[in-house]
Amino acid sequence: MTNFPWLTVIGLIPLIGAAVVAALPAGVTDRAKHIALGVSVVTLVMGIAAALQFENKSGTQFQLAEQHEWIPQFGVSYAVGVDGIALVMILMALVLTPVCILAAWRDVPEGGKREKNYFALMLALETFMVGVFAATDVFLFYVFFEAMLIPVYFLIGSYGGPRRQYAAVKFLLFSLAGGLVMLVGVLALYHYGPGGSDGFLVSKLTGLHLGTTPERLMFVAFFFAFAVKAPMWPVHTWLPDASTEARPATAVLLVGVLDKVGTFGMIRFCLQLFPEASRWATPVVLVLAVISILYGALLAIGQTDLMRLIAYTSVSHFGFIVLGIFAFTTTGAAGSTLYMLNHGFSTAALFLVGAMLVARRGSKRIPDFGGWQRVTPGLAGVFLVAGLSGLALPGLSSFVSEFLVLVGTFQRYKFAAVVATAGIVLAALYILLMYKRMMTGPKPELEGPVRDISLREKIVVAPLIAAFVVLGFYPKPALDMLNPAVSKTLQYVGVSDPTPTSADGSTK
Amino acid sequence: MTSLATLAAADGAATAATGITAYAWLLVALPMLGAAVLLLGGRATDKWGPLFATAMSWAAFVVGAIIWISMVGRDPGARAASLHLFSWVPAGSFNVDAGMLVDQLSVTFVLLVTFVGSLIHVYSLGYMEHDPDKRRFFAYLNLFVAAMLLLVLADSYLLLYVGWEGVGLASYLLIGFWNHNPAYATAANKAFVVNRVGDFGLSVAIMIMFAAFGTVSFAGVQQAAQGGAGEGVLTAIGLMLLLGACGKSAQFPLQSWLGDAMAGPTPVSALIHAATMVTAGVYLVVRSGFIFHGAPNAQLVVVIVGAITLLFGAVVGCAKDDIKKALAASTMSQIGYMMLAAGLGPVGAAFAIFHLLTHGFFKAGMFLGAGSVMHGMNDQVDMRRFGGLSGAMKITWVTFGLGWLAILGVPPFSGFWSKDKIIEAAFIGEGWRPWVFGLTALIGAGITAFYMSRLFFMTFHGKKRWTDDVHPHESPRTMTVPMMVLAVGSALLGLVLSIGGTFTHWLEPITGSHGEEHPVLSVPVITILTLVLVIGGIALAWMRYWRDSVPVAQPTGSLATRAARRDLYQDDVNEGVFMRPGLHLTRALVFADNRGVDGGFGGLAALVGGTSSRLRRLQNGFARSYALTMLAGVVVILGALWVIQ
To answer: Model ipTM?
Structure first.
């Protein structure tokens, strides 16, 4: 099975599924979601099978690799492969897609063509998510990077809330702006690279001596696109609008998976291809990361719209991720990559449970709730667990990654780490104030009975909460995958971990 | 053989756990199972859930007791055992295993937590009998016990942190158990957030440890700290640990949450906010003795914090009319004593834990007594509406009385053996310190006698000041039996454990030994002075709250009284310095984010959009098809690729 094109197949299954769903004849459109769910589950199973082929201790950077000529005249190849980081991201996307499809079960109640297109778009998005993480050719990556925008644009613009057009266009404008800047960088990179029919391969572009100024300019071009995508302060403003106007399932895929392409890109492209420039830019990036952490948290505290609040918590969390990446320690980077995984589940739980509450109350405004622990105790319970994951409670997965980021950053940048640590106090505030405003207080007077969490909703939430607990107490399987990739990246950057400062204390 | 073993213990090395000790993980697993079953089982477990949770707590006690007995059977140098569980966080150069350290200190806590905890489970069966959410309450209690045991059994600072915030979560959930009352929900939030400020310190301490020593396990840090680590590093770690301890143990300046935490059901106040969780800060300082030993300045700060808090709590306790809040102030003050002792190093650390143990019994007993009073008085808490209850609630009166005598330090009751030793230890040293700290501890004892007697007399003696609708009655057996057991402990525990210095010898391998040191005043003088002050405090309270009539309405009071009633303006300070500026900052940022940061981009977009607005409006309908074409294009390209290859 070693020559089996795992990644291509995993990418193609949802695409074929999307085509099938979109082509369903009028009579059977109500089966669209069942087919979509089935396809996404099959894809997940294939993903797990592929992960079993992956060897943590392999010497090569990319495994499950495939490479074919695509546009040899321009040096473009169809080349895919994964390191530990990419594989973990793909697995996260494969888990979240069926969860989101199930969560979106009643998103398009009118059914018919609109419903089947909705689920077809989600499957198409899954293909691009797999592709963007699997691409080991810079141009191919760029193609997927931009292609992802299309299904998301439709998912927001056609199926979103009242201001969906505004949010979708804003999302598209920001992303296109970032993408165009990156395109310049991509083309420049080819120009400075070795060229040839496979000149866009990441492996061909690693370890080049580009010259100080070109390298820095290309770094900036890539970093800008990734910072918009991540999103970092001050280019974060598209995210709250997109998150609140998108359907919750779309918001999960957008914030949980697509935004990770930003931080993933920083590791894979900024650090690996432009190591000198990365070190040069570090002070600025660290400042932006710390601002993102505190700014996102403070803004979250001040929100009255539940979905916007969750979006701002993500701005804060992405600040942590970027901080750990640019700390250039194995601990910090392992923490960041693990954070990318944990944040996916954590944010998914917040968005989806939040949406279950919103669906019952008919409002996203936090002040419209109050006392709902007495109305829907089960939902309140899972909402609290999701919130606790959001505030990185020790014992849940997000704590491990957040603490690793902080401890890894502290090794090199003490001040930045200590300031960032203040974020844990703010996190307690934004989560607990939200919980208090929505769930506590006297039982509200409501028209008609409200149903507590349903079986379908339990199935949506269960894998997410299981992930919190399992990865909180036993993150080793994920870390074992991430560690070698992280070490390799830091080798490319050319840094090694600081040794413990107290000389005689370190010996074991 | 013996000499070898003593040497190993001096190095802080623990041998691998064998026999029953290898099952120490059950201590955490059993109550955790209880919590999980009750929370996931839902309504189906309503009937038997509370009993199941109580059984899990007792089961943990039995396991703990067996481990303790097997430990007593071993040579003092071979008592500490380490238990490796699994590789927890292997990330980059940071590598932490989950493991347990079962030594004299942790087993002491295990016995305290599981025994008092189990008694309070039993008490709650009666106290919470009619609460519709009883099952959830017991689930949280089990969760607390599991987290607290993880806290004291962890063998690294990182795993301790898990237990540390775990108990914080349980505390949050239980303070807000009746969160349909918005004030209670606020109290829960306040407790968690103030604790998070402390946890900031704990986090930074762990970061410094890793950056400096490359390890965060107790054994590794101890080795590094004793192996010539710089004083600056140790001082920084010590102060950051202290910040964490201040949050958890409600010490100055992070004390403001404890009074509000009385919003929780009374058994919770007894277990979490008196006997166990709030003392975790003392545990942390004593456990980290090897750090403070190398950082005398940090030690001094610990002592100062303890001294300030013990007076702060005592002063506040004098003015509170709410029986639970008065007890909470007393808890704060008593933990101040423990903290002070812990900061003194080997001369005081063992007594800090000793007082923690006796306090765990007598304060839990008094809280349960307060709960019993509330149970009989329609949940009233205003002591101005009590009085003369000694006749109506005899068992409560006697058990509470024993706790009262114990906290006063009247010989031969428990507090005498632990608190007087702390006062003596505070008088040890050179220069100004013994005089300042010794006299503070001494005066604190006098004030304690006053406010605790005030509380006792206002509740059980003097004229009846009951409202018409109450009919005080003794509580059921499920409640009184735990009170009686704790009362026995309040009376005898100190004496029993003091015979031959049993307890201090038991802890010596952890707290360290010290030479014969003499207080600046001789011990009999200190003891007599203490007793004189205590009797003075009782007499004053007797005159004002037993002999004289107590007004039912709260008198305006002096300036000092009003300040003490308002907790010496701690909330006003926090509100003025942190909350209000924070609120303004948040509002300003929200405004700026909408208008400024986003507005900038909006303007940019408008500029672009403005020039092409007509075009865009024309094409609006086609935008989708355009994007759809792009999608189709991508599909075709990918598909073509697939076919070609």
So the answer is: 0.92
